[in-house]
Structures are given as C-alpha cells and as structure tokens.
Write a structure and sequence with these properties.
The chain contains 17 helices and 32 strands. With 589 residues, it is an alpha+beta fold. The longest helix has 18 residues.
C-alpha cells in the first residue's frame, strides 16, 4: 500500500495549469536507438479537463492514470490465453460445445450503432476542498467524461468524473442540448457512479445497454466515449491482455480490473467497453508512459455496485476480511507451523481490531480455504480456465453482513470458522470526496483529523515532502476502536496569545487536560467544556501547550476576524455541539 499511495494522482483534481503540464504529445519522432524501457509510471484516472490550450484547436495528447505494485498478497497467475479447443464429432462435439468458453466477436461498426443511442457526454463543474485552509474551497474547475445508459433510466459513469461536483450536465449523441443530471450514488472505492436525468425529453430515443460477462484473454472489445481531440463520439478497438486485481487510482483500492490494448484517453472515463452486443466493462484509467495500456472495470464490480445501491438506496461499500497475510512458499516456514506437504495456505500476520475476524482468527493462523476454495501458498485461488487470482477478490464480492466459512490451521489442528464480512474504514481516510473537511480553531490553533488528502496538499511527491511521522502513521496504523481519529495541530494562526508556539504545527494531539484524545469531536467538547483556569494540550515529542482559558476564548474571535474565517468549527462540529446543547437542556428540564 505504501508504493501505491505514493503514486496515486488524479487528473480530475489537478488545476488547469497542472493538467497542461501533464499532457504529452502522441506524435513524436522515434528514438535514435533502442534502449531498455523505463520503469512503469503510475496510473491516473481519465477525466478530460477543459483547458484553454485545447479550445484553440485539436491537440493530440494523453494524460495517464493509475497503477503501482500490488499492495495485497498475490497477483495474476498464467498470463497466457486458454488454448484453442479442437472440433469434435457427434456426441463429443456437443460435450465440447458445453465445456468450451463462449467467446464473442466484436464488430467496431456494430459497436458504434449500438452506442450511438446509449453513450452520453458528461460535463462536470467541481470544487474540491483546500485541506490546508479547510474553511474554504479551491477554485472551481470544469471537466468532461463519458457515460452510458442502463435499464431503469440510469446512467453509469466513473466516480472521478463527478467527484466533488457542484453541477453536472449530460448530452446525448447528435443533440446540441445539455440536460441537468443528479448524482444518485457514488462509489469512490470502485470508481463508479449512477446519474439520473429528470427531463423526459432526454430519454426520447435512448436505448439501454445490457451488462455481459468477463471477457477471455485475447477477446476483442470496443471502447466508446468522448476523448479529447474532438467533440463527437469515438470508438477504439483492442483485445483483452489480462484480468487481475489492480490498484484503482481514484479510490486507492485493490479490485479486479481488465487490461486492454485499446487507446483510452482523457474523456474516455465512464464510457463502455463493448463486447458483442453487451457491456464488458467501464473505461477508467490507463498506464502513463506506456503505449495503449488501458484498464476497464469488469462487470462483477459494476453489478456489485449497482445491486448495493438498489438494495440499500446508497453505496454500501466493498467488504474486507481485515487481515494481512504472508505467503508460505518457504518449506521451512510451512513445517514450523505444522503444515503437511499436501496443505496450502497463507499465514495470518495482522488483524484489524474493528473486523469480525479479530475475535475469530488469531495471529499465526494458517488460512487454508475461503468458502471451500483452497488458497495456494502465494495467496491465489483458481479463476476460470488455467488462470489464478488473489483470494481478496472472493472477499470483495461478498455483500455487507454476509458470512464466510474459513478453514484454518491452528496449533496443528484444522478448524472451520464463520466470520461476518463488512466494509472497514482505515484509521486515516484515504479519500474525502464529496464532503467538507472537519476543523476546529481555538486561540489560533487549527485542529484537524489527519487524512491522506491533507498529506497530498504537500505536492506530487507528498510522501517525501509531508511530515514523515504523520505519513507513516497514515499508511500503517490500524484503528483500535470505532470512531477513532488521529487529531493533529495543522497550523498556528499568529496572535499575541500563541506567540512562541508557532513551531509546534504538524504534530499529533495526544491529550487535552490529561484526557486522551479519541477524535476531533471529543477534542472540541473537551475544549468548549473546560472549567479549569488553564487549558493544556499534550502533543507528539512530549511537547506541551498551556493557555489561560478565558483569555484564549477571547482571542479566538479576534483571530477569526483577522483571517476572515466565517466559523471557528466546521459544520459537522456545529451540529454536534448543537445536539449536545439540546440534550443537556432536556436533561436539566
């Protein structure tokens, strides 16, 4: 997860000037002599920014998207396609037809006809928060992507196309009219979103696309969308190169993805990849610096997202087992834990205290099977014809609150245990899309919960530029209980009351008047409810801040006025304080 976190960048969240700098020309002279290829750069998502440079005329360029080394155990097994199945005669031919995988031929012309009345262009106006100054937003920006209609008068697109949106419009092929769209649900982990359009005029003549299956290796797919370089619909054709868990750049999660060699450029995001007459996936990212390596979200992920929205009315998240595992490929390691020669599995090395597995599993258990599927020593399970995939995929396809049967080896004895699966939140949130950041200001001290978006504000090389201790905690620490946050003192807004404390920024707040800090809401309550003459904050590195409480309260309003800050706390804390006040008034009466 460490390398993945370092490389994650989103084109859709960059400023126009940054996007211009990231563009590279496709047409360039060949190198004078062959040289070894450079290491693969990171993946980025593919929302197309509306740039002044593009408005002057077509400029063929690409912006890249996501990947980095896999953060979870295992990877794709056999990279080769399945061997051709020879024809048989008579009964043998019928049996062969039943067993042979059904492959679909994709005609680019048929894909165009199918997509003309289904694929739409998405126009988004967005404004993301400023995590250094959490009481204000960054400048408004515009971007474009693609989407397609599915049954139920809904439009599927990418989450990064509509992330931090303030206004969304859609336009169908051949129409000059843009229609207002509402975001029904967003799943940032799987980079998918559902849009709805109220206008009945928009739906006249529109056809919905059906979801198909996962394509086999070397099957042809046609990617349809509205990439940069023009305003009309575009179709590119390619074949499936591999199917395996991949780092999703937008949500920084590890889910199944399909690699194809069709050209996927900014603006293609959210467009369908069509196989035969059905959708095989949703285009969402490509590999920067590589030629024609793109990725699409496969149908099982799409169906899992849609079914969760239909059942609960909102995005329900993808489940996690909450464990970290180690491969058992070394024979000495297997013998030490009592594994017989025929046994395979992985070693449980770490368990999230918030997961149900925390009360079921133990450190140094050997996980042999998941729901009856044997796990190999490298953490993979069988997938289709002679392919393998990490067992995390089986976990992610479970619905929240579903149970799974685990077969483990503990102290030399095999046991079958049932565990309930649910989505798990990290101690330090990886993303904070579509919500305002929390903050609390007292006497010029700005307190915030630590998030990765805050660290990303230090620049593209945020891993090296951000405070080292905070960065390591963000990437490695697990929560000990629900609702826990790492509260930090992000900066000091100078005033007479805090002179001499200005160098104590970017440190974690451990205690307030001797009480351990669990989250920002609790810190706010402790400060607002202080009844002592002095207010003491204990920070990292054994640093201490002491303030005269009444003087500090008076200084707060002075600091807010000087820095033109509308409120001393974010809206979520205001609501929390109001709810607590009503509760106290009710108890008193």
């Amino acid at each position: 997860m460490l390398a993945a976190a370092r490389s994650l960048r989103r084109l859709s969240s960059s400023s126009p000037s940054t996007s211009v700098r990231s563009l590279r020309r496709l047409l360039r002279p060949p190198p004078p002599s062959p040289s070894p290829p450079p290491p693969l750069p990171p993946l980025r998502t593919l929302t197309r920014a509306l740039l002044p440079g593009l408005a002057a005329g077509p400029r063929f360029s690409t912006a890249s998207c996501s990947s980095s080394p896999l953060s979870r155990l295992g990877g794709c097994g056999n990279p080769q396609g399945a061997p051709a199945i020879p024809e048989a005669e008579g009964d043998e031919a019928e049996e062969a037809d039943e067993e042979a995988p059904v492959r679909h031929d994709t005609d680019a012309y048929a894909a165009v006809e199918l997509a003309l009345d289904s694929v739409v262009k998405v126009f988004t106006v967005s404004s993301s928060p400023n995590y250094f100054l959490p009481w204000q937003n960054k400048a408004q920006r515009e971007s474009m992507g693609s989407g397609f209609v599915i049954p139920g008068k809904r439009i599927v697109t990418n989450a990064h196309v509509v992330a931090d949106h303030t206004f969304v419009l859609v336009r169908k092929h051949g129409s000059p009219t843009k229609y207002k769209a509402e975001v029904q649900a967003v799943g940032h982990e799987c980079d998918l979103a559902l849009l709805t359009v109220e206008s009945e005029e928009f739906w006249d003549g529109m056809n919905s696309l059906e979801l198909g299956d996962i394509p086999f290796l070397q099957e042809a797919v046609a990617v349809v969308g509205y990439p940069q370089g023009g305003d009309n619909i575009s179709v590119t054709k390619g074949v499936v190169s591999r199917v395996e868990p991949t780092q999703y750049a937008h949500g920084a999660t590890q889910l199944m993805a399909i690699q194809i060699d069709a050209a996927i450029n900014p603006g293609n995001s959210g467009g369908p990849a069509i196989m035969g007459d059905k959708v095989a996936g949703v285009a969402f990212q490509n590999l920067s610096g590589a030629e024609n390596i793109g990725y699409i979200i496969p149908v099982p992920i799409i169906k899992r997202f849609i079914s969760g929205v239909e059942e609960s009315g909102k995005y329900s998240g993808f489940c996690s087992l909450g464990i970290s595992c180690q491969a058992t490929e070394n024979i000495q390691l297997r013998e030490c834990f009592g594994m017989r020669p025929e046994m395979t599995g992985v070693l449980v090395s770490r368990i999230n205290p918030l997961s149900d597995a925390y009360r079921i599993l133990k450190k140094d258990d050997i996980l042999l099977e998941f729901d009856g599927v044997p796990i190999a020593n490298d953490g993979t399970v069988p997938f289709r014809n002679r392919e393998r995939i990490t067992f995390d995929h089986l976990v992610s396809m479970k619905k929240p609150e579903e149970t799974a049967v685990l077969k483990v080896l503990r102290d030399g004895k095999e046991q079958e245990l049932s565990v309930t699966l649910r989505p798990l939140q990290p101690l330090v949130p990886v993303h904070q899309f579509d919500k305002l950041p929390s903050y609390y200001i007292f006497a010029g001290f700005v307190f915030i919960p630590l998030t990765q978006p805050y660290l990303h504000e230090f620049g593209e090389d945020w891993y090296n530029a951000s405070p080292r201790r905070l960065c390591e905690r963000a990437l490695r620490e697990l929560p000990k209980k629900g609702g826990e946050q790492l509260v930090i003192l992000s900066q000091v807004l100078m005033d007479d009351i805090n002179v001499g404390y200005e160098r104590l920024a970017e440190l974690q707040v451990k205690k307030v008047n001797g009480v351990e800090v669990e989250n920002l809401k609790q810190l706010c309550s402790l400060v607002e409810g202080c009844t002592e003459e002095n207010l003491r904050f204990d920070l990292d590195d054994e640093r201490v801040i002491v303030l005269k409480y009444q003087n500090a309260r008076l200084a707060t309003s002075r600091v807010l006025k000087r820095h033109r800050i509308p409120s001393a706390m974010s809206s979520d804390l205001v609501e929390e304080q109001a709810a607590n006040g009503e509760m106290e008034a009710s108890c008193t009466s």
